[in-house]
Amino acid sequence: MPTPKKKTSRSKRDMRRSHDSVTVPAMALDKKSGELVRPHRAHKGDDGAYYYKGKQISASKEKA
Q1: With CB atoms 3.0 to 4.6 Å apart as the test, which of 38, 49, 54, 56 could cross-link to 31 if both were Cys?
Q2: Confidence band for 63, pLDDT divided at 50, 70 and 90
Q3: Any idea what the Cα angle at residue 54 is, between residues 30 and 26, rounded to 5°?
Q4: Quick one: pLDDT band at residue 5, thresholds 50, 70, 90?
Q5: Quick one: CA torsion of 44, 49, 50, 51, rounded to 10 degrees?
Q6: Domain locations in the chain?
Q7: Using an 8 Å Cβ cutoff, are 36 and 27 in contact?
Q8: Residues near 18 by beta carbon (within 8 Å), at least 6 away in sequence
Q9: Could you tell me the CA-to-CA distances from 3 to 6, 7, 8, 9, 60 in Å, in that order?
Q10: Which tens digits make up the pLDDT trace of 31-50?
Q11: In angstroms, rounded to a whole number, what is the distance separating the alpha carbons of residues 55 and 34?
């Protein structure tokens, strides 16, 4: 199995790893309820219906 001819410097190694950091996911405020939600994703409301950009996109499930 081939081995590297020269040792990789700290600078080159760290430049390669520059994109490996953990990022905090983006959050937005829901227009209707005021809670934090992920942008560009539908979220479930308190009534069981799904909302996207403050508008209801599915019917709520009624409990018997």
Answers
A1: 54
A2: low
A3: 40
A4: very high
A5: -100
A6: 26-57
A7: yes
A8: none
A9: 9, 10, 12, 16, 61
A10: 777 889 999 999 888 888 89
A11: 13
